[in-house]
Write a structure and sequence with these properties.
Elements (H helix, E strand, L loop, with lengths): L1 H15 L21 H22 L5 H29 L12
Helix pairs in contact: 2-3
Length: 105
C-alpha cells in the first residue's frame, strides 16, 4: 500500500513539474481554450455589461470587508459565466474551435 501511495505522489509531482509523459493535454478538453462563435460573443458582451453595471453600484458602497467580498464574488460569478458560455457553445455545436495561441506552452 505504501509503495502505491509513494508512486502516486511521485506521479502527481511529475505532472505539476511538467516532466515526461505527463506533459500531455487533458483528454477531457475541460481546460481547453475555445474561440467563441457569434452567439457566445454576444452573450459574453451582454453579461459583461450587466456585471460592469453591478460593479459600478457596488463601488458606491462604503469600503470594508463586505464590499471587498461582494466584488470578489462578482469576479467569481463573471468567471463562471464565461465557463457556462463556453459549455453552452460546445453543447449547441457539438464542439468548438480551439484557441491554439493560448496553448499550454
Amino acid at each position: 500500500m505504501l509503495d502505491t501511495q509513494v508512486h502516486a505522489a511521485e506521479k502527481v509531482k511529475s505532472i505539476f513539474n511538467g516532466e515526461g509523459e505527463h506533459q500531455q493535454k487533458s483528454k477531457s478538453g475541460r481546460f481547453d481554450y475555445v474561440k467563441y462563435d457569434q452567439m457566445a460573443t454576444q452573450m459574453q458582451a451582454d453579461i459583461k455589461k450587466a456585471f460592469q453595471n453591478a460593479e459600478m453600484h457596488i463601488d458606491c458602497l462604503a469600503d470594508g470587508r463586505a464590499k471587498s467580498l461582494a466584488l470578489t464574488k462578482l469576479e467569481e460569478a463573471y468567471a463562471w459565466c464565461g465557463k457556462c458560455i463556453r459549455d453552452d457553445q460546445i453543447s449547441r455545436n457539438g464542439s468548438a474551435e480551439l484557441q491554439e495561441e493560448r496553448g499550454d506552452e
